[in-house]
Design goal:
By secondary structure, this protein is an alpha+beta fold. The chain is 20% helix and 31% strand. The protein binds FE2/S2 (inorganic) cluster. FE2/S2 (inorganic) cluster binds at residues 107, 109-112, 140, 142-143, 145, 158-160.
């Protein structure tokens, strides 16, 4: 017993050292999550057969009728999301006096489908991310990466580093169409 106590006393210094190393390790991990993010840059769309998303006349489907409303849809064989933005943003398109942007929902970390997260408290609690402007984000439920629809779908937090692939939107004959999409980029 005495030997154990002596051994403990001789090693007490290891506790604060381990705690300090752990804190630095966590800070390094956190810095990694918020850095190394790739900018969206100029879009490089691959054309696909046009698909009408909103009918002529600006009749917006109900999930999209409010600001930050969103509609999931299939395009070129993958799940995508169309978002009604409150303002113009990189890659958005004005249609009927309103602004829309669309992304492939494939997370650029490991490919899960991202969802709209409108509640900033859920973003803060579940994703450990609080957007500076409090705006809704696209969040991945698998490892909690966050992508910003107002900034071309760029990854702003989490393990993903590449932006979401953008969907090209066009107005043709008074309707809103998807006409192409970027390829999904993954990696570091
Ligand atoms: S698959 Fe989306 S964060 Fe990992």
């Amino acid at each position: 017993m005495n030997i154990n106590r002596r051994a403990l006393l001789e090693r007490w210094w290891m506790l604060p050292v381990a705690a300090t190393l752990g804190a630095f390790g966590f800070m390094g991990y956190y810095a990694r999550q918020v850095s190394h993010k790739r900018e969206a840059g100029a879009p490089q769309f691959v054309s696909h057969p046009p698909q009408r998303l909103i009918l002529p006349g600006g009749e917006v489907p109900s999930p999209l009728s409010t600001l930050w409303g969103s509609l999931n849809f299939e395009y070129a064989g993958v799940s995508c999301v169309l978002i009604h933005l409150p303002q113009p943003a990189p890659g958005s398109l004005a249609f009927g006096g309103q602004y829309f942007v669309a992304f492939n929902r494939t997370c650029t970390h490991l490919g899960c489908a991202v969802n709209m997260v409108r509640n900033p408290e859920i973003l803060a609690f579940s994703f450990n991310y609080r957007p500076p402007d409090g705006t809704p984000q696209l969040g991945c439920p698998c490892h909690f990466s966050v992508f910003d629809p107002l900034h071309a779908g760029e990854a702003v937090f989490g393990k993903a580093h590449f932006p979401l692939a953008r969907v090209r939107l066009e107005v043709r004959s008074g309707a809103l169409w998807a006409t192409g999409m970027e390829q999904v980029k993954t990696g570091w």
